[in-house]
């Protein structure tokens, strides 16, 4: 079941990405990429390695996060519910099969496309800074998100209000095999779905001069992802707000970090390269 | 201050106050102020009267969908009665850890393991257990009259016992140490094309998985379980990880096994009761899964370990959080020879046999575990031994199935133990009929049903949640299996905390709960409201549910609480209201 879902996901996202390349990137940039790809890969390698390490560490760490969290034992689910009340039930009162299909599609496919496509799109730019900022922001999202997951035990709305419909899992039960690999039910604060989507959205806005249409599409997708997490009964509205804040923090930090690192990189390269060459 | 002046005056040689006059003056001043201070103290140093604020500890919907719904309904009526309520959800094992081990709760809502025989109340309510961890008296309830009746029903037999149980139950419902809410129906889905004989044993016990008749070429029994805990920990003594599941019983044998409430010989070939002594004859030639022989020494060791997991090596006994009720019946074990034992029991015949239901543990493995658990740099609570904290993987028992493999949160796979006594030709007991029993973990009832209907599983070993039952479609090769239930949903009070130790308060709370409506609304009718925590045949006539609770009837109707009546109930119980809120002294 899981394999089938994964294959389906890979095919759909690949098709969407190809369409995105055709629509937003254009032939001109692709041609340039064919010439410059080595330099760009070199520039993006350090942060890619860091991101890969963080992702690997994340998947291991998630096994132990619940135990750590219960040792800290800070469980504000009831406070979250007290604060926002029955917003979700109100949102779900607009439920229609079409909306459920749309938001389920967004939650799975739209989300993965939203994360994958900008990597390709920014790789197609001569200036590697957006790419490096993007990858740094991803890294920060996963790192800070994991820290928050350790300190906060929060159950999603479905767990406190069973009348909240698990719309996606009830309509498309095959997806829970996928999400179960990634998610633990005590890790809903903040919504990492939202924070990563918002990260892409904010960066797309910052690169709107280069990719005006992508800015528009990313905006719509990011907002849809945020709404989908609430509509599908997976997150509280407060988790989504926290996700947006986390996204903003990550984007700002990545700007600072990328500036520093590229500087140090340049210094280091100038110092090291001649000595390497001499050898 | 008044004393300082004369001293300085004296040393400077004096402005006319004699020392005596000063002393008299200061004494008068002290008397005057002390009277004043005492009055202030009597006014100020009183504990404040505040709104009663409490937390209900329960499980999230992923752990138990019905519990969180019950908890929210209970929270709503308590709030209507002017109490400030919050709900804390904890995962399966953390819920049990908070309630059973640390007693860190005000009120709890969840499923109580109950029991087929009313003697389970001895474990649940005897005040001797109030300071222990586990299902033995997690409520901290202490009542000498109840203690006496618990002991009486243990020592008596026949009609005397019935009378004692009746009196006990009347006292228990009067005291409401916990509020029994309802008994859920147990439904499971099975595949009938691959196995026959599902009705022969209760699927929450070992017999439900033994003696099944597989169809031609079927050598694998596939269970799907919604609770991941059996894949994480298989220690019979770890209370947080044990629930209504049969897997420990398939890995470990007990001397007797229960069928429809009666005990049948299992590892013991036979037993006889006489004058407070159970003479037990073990089956010969039994071995543990690691090929070590099982004999009377292991049985003796097991009862010792269940009395004190430090085997009397510690400063004080460290009883385990499981099996305290049945093991506590046994006062002493005397080994006659390798296969004969005498159990000295503090019970009549009816209850004494209950002592034979505990799992027999191999001495050569558990002896080393009878030591305090340590974590470097952390002070571990007294009485925490390796025996109750180890995850016990791989488990070495003597049961009909042996451990195969496991992946946490994915599966637990057991293999047939070919040397088990049920496979002997001269033993007529249901045995393992398949080579492999694979327990797949799948977190939701809906997908568990799907696995059975698509022929990916043979049985849902967990009880199906009631909300899915109406939607199950009938098919030729699957069937629904309904089994009798002895567990019940309850609202537990932590009597160690004020005001929950007050029976009047507990009775007032019991009156706020519309059990009939909850059984209908939360359980979709697949539950029976109940006033007593025991099976129907033990319920005295005047405690039988007849449309409403015979002792603490609901103050209102059809789920709607009569708020004025509720407040009156609390006021009659000696509590006060300030406007809308219930005030208590903290």
UniProtKB/TrEMBL annotation, chain A:
Name of the featured protein: Phosphatidylglycerophosphatase
Phosphatidic acid phosphatase type 2/haloperoxidase domain boundaries: 136-255
Segments crossing the lipid bilayer: 6-26, 47-65, 99-125, 137-156, 188-206, 213-234, 240-258
Keyword Protein biosynthesis: no
Keyword terms: Membrane, Transmembrane, Transmembrane helix
Pfam families tied to this protein: PAP2_3
Record membrane topology: Multi-pass membrane protein
Record's GO cellular component terms: membrane
Ranges in a coiled coil: none
Subcellular location: Membrane
SUPFAM superfamilies named among the record's database cross-references: Acid phosphatase/Vanadium-dependent haloperoxidase (SSF48317)
Automatic annotation (TrEMBL), chain B:
Record flagged with keyword Transmembrane helix: no
Coiled coil: none
One GO molecular-function entry: peptide transmembrane transporter activity
InterPro entries: SBP_5, SBP_5_dom
Protein keywords: Signal, Transport
Chain ranges of the Solute-binding protein family domain: 263-580
Any one GO biological process: peptide transport
Domain of life: Archaea
Keyword Flavoprotein attributed: no
Family the UniProt entry places it in: Belongs to the bacterial solute-binding protein 5 family.
Record's protein name: ABC transporter substrate-binding protein
Organism of this sequence: Natronococcus pandeyae
């Amino acid at each position: 079941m899981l394999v089938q879902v994964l294959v389906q996901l890979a095919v759909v996202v690949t098709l969407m990405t190809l369409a995105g390349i055709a629509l937003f990137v254009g032939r001109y940039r692709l041609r340039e990429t064919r010439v410059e790809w080595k330099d760009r890969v070199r520039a993006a390698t350090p942060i890619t390695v860091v991101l890969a390490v963080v992702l690997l560490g994340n998947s291991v760490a998630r096994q132990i996060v619940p135990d750590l969290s219960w040792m800290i034992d800070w469980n504000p689910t009831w406070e979250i519910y007290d604060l926002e009340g029955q917003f979700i039930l109100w949102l779900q009162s607009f439920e229609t099969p079409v909306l459920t299909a749309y938001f389920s599609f967004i939650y799975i496919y739209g989300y993965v496309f939203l994360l994958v496509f900008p990597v390709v799109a920014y790789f197609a730019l001569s200036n590697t800074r957006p790419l490096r900022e993007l990858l740094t922001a991803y890294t920060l999202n996963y790192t800070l998100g994991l820290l928050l997951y350790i300190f906060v035990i929060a159950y999603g709305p479905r767990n406190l209000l069973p009348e909240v419909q698990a719309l996606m899992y009830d309509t498309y039960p095959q997806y829970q095999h996928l999400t179960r690999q990634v998610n633990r039910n005590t890790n809903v604060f903040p919504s990492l779905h939202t924070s990563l989507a918002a990260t892409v959205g904010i960066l797309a806005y910052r690169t709107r001069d280069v990719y005006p249409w992508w800015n528009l599409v990313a905006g719509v997708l990011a907002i849809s992802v945020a709404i989908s997490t609430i509509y599908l009964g997976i997150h509280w509205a407060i988790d989504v707000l926290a996700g947006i804040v986390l996204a903003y923090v990550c984007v700002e930090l990545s700007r600072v970090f990328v500036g520093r690192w590229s500087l140090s990189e340049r210094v280091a390269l100038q110092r090291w390269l001649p000595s390497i060459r001499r050898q | 201050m008044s004393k300082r002046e004369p001293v300085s005056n004296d040393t400077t040689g004096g402005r006319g106050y004699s020392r005596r006059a000063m002393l008299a003056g200061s004494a008068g001043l002290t008397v005057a102020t002390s009277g004043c201070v005492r009055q202030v103290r009597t006014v100020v140093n009183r504990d404040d009267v505040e709104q009663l604020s409490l937390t209900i500890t329960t499980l999230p919907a992923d752990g138990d969908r019905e519990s969180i719904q019950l908890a929210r309904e209970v929270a709503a009526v308590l709030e209507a009665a002017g109490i400030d309520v919050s709900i804390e959800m904890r995962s399966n094992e953390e819920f049990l850890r908070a309630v059973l081990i640390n007693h860190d709760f005000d009120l709890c809502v969840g499923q109580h393991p109950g029991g087929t025989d009313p003697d389970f109340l001895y474990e649940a309510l005897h005040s001797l257990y109030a300071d222990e961890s586990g299902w033995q008296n997690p409520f901290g309830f202490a009542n000498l009259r109840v203690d006496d009746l618990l002991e009486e029903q243990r020592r008596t037999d026949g009609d005397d016992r019935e009378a004692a149980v009746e009196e006990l139950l009347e006292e228990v419902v009067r005291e409401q140490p916990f509020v029994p809410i309802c008994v859920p129906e147990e439904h499971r889905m099975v595949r009938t094309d691959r196995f026959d004989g599902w009705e022969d044993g209760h699927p929450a016990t070992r017999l439900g998985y033994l003696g099944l008749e597989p169809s031609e070429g079927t050598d694998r029994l596939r269970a799907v379980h919604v609770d991941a805990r059996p894949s994480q920990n298989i220690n019979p003594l770890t209370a947080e990880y044990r629930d209504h599941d049969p897997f420990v019983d398939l890995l470990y044998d007990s001397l007797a096994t229960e069928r429809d409430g009666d005990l049948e010989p299992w590892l013991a070939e036979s037993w006889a009761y006489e004058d407070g002594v159970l003479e037990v004859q073990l089956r010969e030639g039994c071995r543990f899964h690691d090929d070590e022989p099982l004999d009377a020494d292991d049985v003796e060791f097991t009862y010792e370990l269940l009395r004190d997991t430090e085997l009397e090596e510690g400063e004080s006994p460290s009883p385990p959080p499981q099996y305290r009720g049945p093991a506590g019946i046994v006062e002493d074990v005397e080994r006659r020879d390798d296969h004969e034992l005498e159990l000295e029991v503090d019970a009549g015949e009816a209850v004494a046999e209950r002592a034979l239901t505990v799992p027999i543990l191999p001495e050569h493995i558990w002896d080393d575990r009878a030591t305090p658990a340590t974590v470097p740099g952390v002070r571990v609570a007294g009485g925490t031994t390796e025996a109750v904290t180890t995850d016990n993987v791989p488990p070495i028992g003597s049961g009909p199935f042996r451990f195969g493999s496991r992946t946490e949160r994915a599966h637990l796979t057991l293999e047939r133990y070919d040397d088990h006594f049920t496979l002997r030709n001269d033993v007529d007991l249901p045995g393992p009929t398949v080579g492999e029993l694979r327990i797949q973990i799948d977190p939701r009832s809906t997908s568990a049903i799907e696995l059975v209907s698509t022929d990916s599983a043979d049985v849902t070993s967990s009880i199906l949640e009631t909300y899915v039952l109406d939607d199950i479609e009938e098919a030729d090769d699957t069937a629904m299996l309904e089994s009798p239930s002895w567990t019940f949903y309850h609202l537990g009070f932590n009597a160690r905390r004020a005001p929950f130790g007050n029976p009047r308060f507990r009775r007032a709370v019991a009156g706020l709960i519309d059990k009939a409506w909850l059984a209908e609304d939360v359980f979709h009718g697949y539950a029976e409201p109940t006033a007593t925590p025991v099976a129907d045949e033990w319920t005295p006539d005047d405690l039988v549910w007849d449309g409403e609770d015979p002792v603490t009837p609901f103050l209102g109707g059809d789920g709607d609480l009569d708020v004025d009546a509720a407040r009156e109930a609390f006021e009659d119980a000696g509590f006060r209201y300030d406007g809308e809120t219930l005030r208590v002294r903290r």
